[in-house]
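Q: My labmate handed me this sequence with no annotations at all. I'd like to see what the chain might look like in three dimensions before we decide whether it's worth expressing. Could you predict it?
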Amino acid sequence: MAGYRIETVRNGYRDWTARNDRGAEVRIAAADDPEAQPSFTPVELLLAAIGGCGGLVTDRTARSVVQDGMRIVVESVSRPEDDGRVGAIRVSYEIELPEGDEHAADALARGVRLTHDKYCTVSRTVEHGARIEARLPDGTLVFMGG
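A: Here is what I predict for the chain of 146 residues:
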């Protein structure tokens, strides 16, 4: 069983920092606020989590493929009909495989498929959804969805 905990603290108006228990941190702010740059928006962090999870898992699921120089590009465009949610997400694995090496191409395809079908917690959660609860300081549940 895995447990996760992130603390997000306010630096100023629309400017936050998220920290984990290992001391890593990332700045979260509005993209249009020049005073809060460089930063990630929450949606960019979601896409980064999908790409990062995909990379970490592909390191295991496609071990026979030399992955030096691999890039994972995650893109999404939200439209009005997405009703305030992220639109369709495209994950592109970019790597130069040895020319004519069918084994490497097959191993990479299998690894990427397993990554998203079975092992990447982030993309699987986005695909299937998760229950979200929001609580006030006194413990009152004010929102539950999923």
